[in-house]
Design goal:
The complex is a heterodimer of chains A (332) and B (340). Chain A has 332 residues and is mainly α. Chain A has helices at residues 2-29, 34-39, 45-54, 61-72, 99-134, 139-153, 156-170, 192-226, 229-236, 241-268, 273-278, 284-293, 297-325, 327-330, and strands at residues 75-76, 83-84. Chain A folds into 2 domains: 20-84, no CATH class; 99-330, Orthogonal Bundle (MetI-like fold), CATH 1.10.3720.10. In chain A, 73% of the residues lie in helices and 1% in strands. Chain A has a two-stranded antiparallel sheet. Chain A starts with a helix and ends with a helix. Chain B is an alpha/beta fold and 340 residues long. Chain B folds into 2 domains: 4-225, Rossmann fold (3-Layer(aba) Sandwich), CATH 3.40.50.300; 240-339, no CATH class. Chain B is built from 11 helices and 12 strands. Chain B has helices spanning 46-54, 80-86, 108-117, 124-137, 143-146, 156-168, 186-203, 214-220, 238-243, 248-255, 321-332, and strands at 4-15, 18-30, 35-39, 62-70, 73-74, 91-94, 174-178, 206-211, 223-228, 231-237, 305-306, 314-315. In chain B, the strands form 2 sheets. Chain B has an 8-stranded mixed sheet, sandwiched between helices. In chain B, strands 2-1-4-5 form a 4-stranded antiparallel sheet. In chain B, α3 (108-117) packs across α4, α3 packs parallel to α6 and α6 (156-168) runs parallel beside α7 (186-203). The N and C termini of chain B lie far apart (43 Å). Classes of the chains: A mainly alpha (332), B alpha/beta (340).
């Protein structure tokens, strides 16, 4: 188990280097001039030149990349001896803010949205998926199919606008948008109740698509598991349908769902851009969009780092969880 | 009273193409401690017969008629709660493929304990001890350590032993074995059969052994039912069937057995394919493939009748008894090779 973990973490490191390197290269392939954007459109050429120097944009790409890595590493090699320091993502080109702070401010918003949304979509998908597998072609199953079709077809932006118009504006039940801090009421609103109140519509908007996909996946998995020989064995032992379902069908049907869930949550951490834009949530997705518009490389890179770490962590978590729930994986 | 009395059992499945008569009027009895073999080719209805008795066919689209009295109670008409009490307790089943018949995510110990605790109100520890005894009885080496292992850590033969242990754990009166050796290699087959023979004398359960392998029948059965296209073709004791087979289909089965005592150029085969059960041939269902076919065979379905001198030996064929005696004698001498 320990060796497995070490190997996985080494691989994660390689992956991390590859991803950040590629995003660096892409950034420099794009025909844009960040220094010009920073200095301003009316700035004289020598000001742009100074900006370029100041941002180290005059150096070759590999040097800039190494600078980025060095700043990110928890050890500095500048002095006579290596010293421990705080890893830094650098400063934003546009605002000179520390990227660490930018990511730190945006991450809780996206994490709230994604985790809450994932809980919601599982709460919707599990019962519907299982029930429609139990009664295929029944009224419930067909109803679920309609829901799935709508859920997959409805664009989150459309859905989000519709929800915030009717539920937020017309009925006035929820805020129209914005984010309330979960713990620290630094802004106008805060605390768990207001946090949840503001997040209800984003959660729904974000969860519908996944809920639809998961209903189909859970239904298919449960149907498949119900036809397994060991389920017949369980019935032959005299187990009731409830026991057969609980301890033989569901346990096996949920194995692939766990994998998908981990991957989807990890991916979504990179920014649920549509939902964040509709509800004005200052999360990772919105920050990324803004940074890209301004060719703000350090911020973009900071978000790439965050998203990569999220995906790696969730995939690792899935692998470890799998070892617990599927004995066939455990020893190999 | 017989342990199990099946009378005129019919299992029909509604499908998009029409009604498939998978079992169409099958009757037999099993006495306490006796072993009944059911032989026939794939699709002859032998497995469906047993799944029907166990109540394991899906309820939807299945029409079941006739009766199956187990200790006097009709299995086909009892409430599902009562059937669940009987299943796994008084009547247990072993399936064909041990690789897929055990749940991969639970340890075998847990699956055995589940089988016990579904029917007995005893503690987990007691149940585990019982499970351990059974695992030892079926010959799992180092059972104390292996009881917590998972199915994928066992070989096919060992898994089938576990299945047998699980079936016998509540000391059932009747054990239904649906081709328990088909998925195993030959040496393992022999071990499993020997194990079942030994356990039967230990536990005293009656066995229904479903197989397409007459070698298995000879090894284990007291009585034999030969099924063809959802019906019984011939029925009798093992001796009667192997010494005086009276149905051309049985001849075909026997003739296709490799023999060590006769020098044959090639094995006899039964020509053609098993008929569609969606719409079986008129008259005798074997007539399109029968080398002895007569005009009456295409008109009238033969009844299952006893032999004149062996009232327990039933067969359904229009041929006259003399011809049958002669052909049976020829077959036993190992000379039926030209006949087909």
């Amino acid at each position: 188990m320990f060796r497995y973990l070490v190997r996985r973490i080494l691989w994660a490191f390689v992956l991390f280097i590859a991803v950040t390197m590629v995003s660096y290269i892409i950034f420099f392939l794009v025909p844009a001039e960040p220094a010009r954007l920073v200095a301003g459109p009316q700035a004289p050429p020598d000001a742009v030149e100074r900006a370029r120097k100041f941002l180290h944009l005059d150096e070759p790409i590999w040097k800039q990349y190494l600078r980025f890595l060095h700043s990110l590493s928890p050890v500095t090699f500048e002095g006579a001896r290596p010293e421990v320091k705080t890893p830094s993502l650098g400063r934003s080109f546009a605002t000179r803010q520390e990227v660490n702070h930018i990511v730190k401010a945006a991450a809780p918003v996206t994490i709230s949205l994604v985790i809450g949304g994932a809980i919601l979509w599982m709460l919707i998908a599990l019962p519907i998926g299982i029930l429609s597998a139990l009664r295929p072609r029944s009224l419930l199953d067909r109803g679920a199919m309609v829901f799935v079709l709508i859920g997959i077809s409805a664009h989150p932006v459309w859905l989000g606008l519709l929800l915030s118009y009717f539920i937020g504006y017309k009925l006035g039940l929820t805020p129209l948008g914005g984010y309330c801090d979960l713990v620290n009421p630094s802004t106008a609103c805060g605390g768990p109740v207001q946090w949840a109140h503001a997040m209800i519509l984003p959660w729904i908007t974000f969860a519908i698509l996944f809920a639809a996909l998961y209903v189909r996946m859970i239904r298919a998995n449960v149907l498949e598991a119900m036809n397994e020989d060991y389920v017949r064995t369980a019935r032959a032992k005299g187990a009731s349908e409830a026991v057969v379902m609980r301890s033989h069908v569901l346990r096996n049907a949920m194995l692939p769902v766990v994998t998908m869930l981990g991957m989807d949550i990890g991916l979504a951490m990179g920014g649920a851009i549509f939902t964040e834009s509709v509800f004005g949530l200052p999360g990772i997705g919105q920050t990324a969009v803004k940074a890209l518009e301004g060719f703000d490389l350090p911020t973009v890179q900071g978000i790439v780092v965050f998203a990569t770490i999220a995906i790696i962590v969730f995939n690792l978590a899935v692998d470890l969880l799998y070892a617990v729930i599927d004995p066939r994986i455990r020893l190999s | 009273m017989s342990l199990l009395e099946v009378r005129d059992l019919k299992t029909h499945f509604r499908t998009d193409d029409g009604i498939v008569k998978a079992v169409d009027g099958v009757s037999f009895t099993v006495d306490k401690g006796q072993t009944l073999g059911i032989v026939g080719e794939s699709g002859s209805g032998k497995s469906v017969t047993c799944l029907t008795i166990m109540g394991l066919n899906s309820k939807k689209n299945t029409i079941t008629t006739g009766e199956a009295k187990f200790n006097g109670e009709d299995l086909l008409r009892m409430p599902s709660k009562r059937l669940r009490q009987i299943r796994g307790n008084d009547m247990a089943m072993i399936f064909q493929d041990p690789m897929t018949s055990l749940n991969p995510v639970h340890s075998i110990g847990r699956q055995l304990v589940e089988a016990i605790q579904l029917h007995r109100d005893i503690s987990k520890r007691q149940a585990k001890n019982r499970a351990l005894d059974l695992l030892k009885a079926v010959g799992i080496p180092r059972a104390e350590r292996r009881i917590d292992d998972y199915p994928h850590q066992f070989s096919g033969g060992m898994r089938q032993r576990v299945m047998i242990a699980m079936a016998l754990v509540n000391d059932p009166d009747l054990l239904i074995a649906d081709e328990p050796t088909t998925a195993l290699d030959v040496t393992t087959q022999a071990q499993i059969l020997e194990l079942m023979n030994r356990l039967q004398s230990e536990f005293g359960s009656a066995i229904i052994m479903i197989t397409h392998d007459l070698g298995v029948i000879a090894e284990i059965a007291d009585e034999v039912v030969v099924m063809y296209a959802a019906r019984v073709a011939e029925k009798g004791t093992v001796d009667q069937l192997f010494k005086r087979p009276h149905h051309p289909y049985t001849w075909g089965l026997l003739g296709s057995l490799p023999r060590l005592d006769a020098d044959l150029e090639r094995l006899v085969q039964i020509q053609g394919q098993p008929p569609s059960l969606l719409n079986p041939p008129r008259g005798c269902r074997f007539n399109p493939r029968c080398p002895y076919v007569m005009s009456v065979c295409k008109e009238k379905e033969p009844e299952l009748l006893p032999l004149s001198d062996e009232p327990e030996h039933l067969q359904a064929c229009h041929l006259d008894e003399q011809t049958k005696e002669r052909e049976a004698a020829k077959l036993i001498a190992g000379t039926l090779a030209e006949a087909s």
